Amino acid sequence: MKGEALLVGKNGRFSGGFDINVFQKAHKTGDISQLPDVSVALVTNTIEVVVVQGLALGGGLELAMGCHACVAAPRAQLGLPKFSLGVMPGFGGTQRLPRLLGLSKAIDMMLISKPRLSEEGEKLGLIDAIVPPQELLKALDIAEARKLWAHSLHRTDKIGSLLEAREIIKAARQHVKRTFPNLPQHQACLDVIEEGIFRGGYAGVLKVFNELVVKDTSKGLVHIFFAQCAISKVPKVTDVGLKLRRVKKVDVIGVGLMGEKALSLVNGVLDYSQFKDVDMVIEAVIENILLKQKIFSEIENICPPHCILATNTSTIDLNLIGAKIKSQDQVIGARFFSPAHMMPLLEIVRTEKTM
Fold this sequence. Notes:
It comes from Lactuca sativa. By secondary structure, the protein is α/β, with parallel strands linked by helices. It has helices at residues 20-29, 40-46, 59-65, 93-101, 103-112, 118-124, 139-145, 162-179, 184-199, 205-213, 216-230, 289-300, 318-321, and strands at 5-8, 47-52, 55-57, 69-72, 77-79, 116-117, 129-130, 250-253, 280-283, 308-311, 331-336, 346-350. The strands form 3 sheets. The protein has a 5-stranded mixed β-sheet with strand order 8-9-10-11-12. A 4-stranded parallel β-sheet has the order 1-2-4-7, sandwiched between helices.
């Protein structure tokens, strides 16, 4: 191992990738000189082995793929989630992942942007071995045994014929056009993958990445990312010493159109008799104020005093819905956006009397 390096993460984590705060700075100033200008030689010529604990996401996973061997602890998270920020893998992932997993599986993993556990990663060929945390330094022995392995950037055994590759990319383009018609990062990623397979396009990866960063798509998605992070710190809500209320049982009145897989976890009832020990009720019936007022009046007499009374309305004044009940301080709005699997957002709205 003389002259080479073993890279291990700190505090139980390997790497979460590039600092997203730099994206935000570049959007505000228009200065892209702050964006990464990494050295490919650093990855391919210096770092022999990486040891992944906790997570290796984005640039962290791309770094791991560029090394001679990658060893991971059980249930480590591996993924390339940059599409959600309006960009694509910019540190060689578009070239290395297809060579490690095969073209179809690599495209799916990048487009879906969902992290995989290390156990699945080992089956796919993304990592070389899974080792218990207390034995991770055995990675040195694993690397010694694999000295003659080719770097991932030079592998071609899982790519298949150029004709097959062209058909796979063509099908992926059609899927992206249907599924993500207004998001440029997906097509750009396929462009770079195709360039790398047919003409060796690794040198252009960073250039395309930087071009995507300054587009309005990235600006909007990065703004959403930081807005979601800010939810955990809401002025006059999270900073006034409020205590969390345990919610063990929730009843829903009306199912609407967004049940999906959740229906398998639900028990149906025909009356309110089961509401006597509930912590929260979500009313999701049609937009009829008289019906909603009637439901709230009926369940108030059955639910315990601490029960949160939520309505899923998007058009009716919450104060009017709870106007005829005594527990007006327990009323909130809980609006789910549709389709729920594409927009994981729940809007919580207080009334004038919500405690």
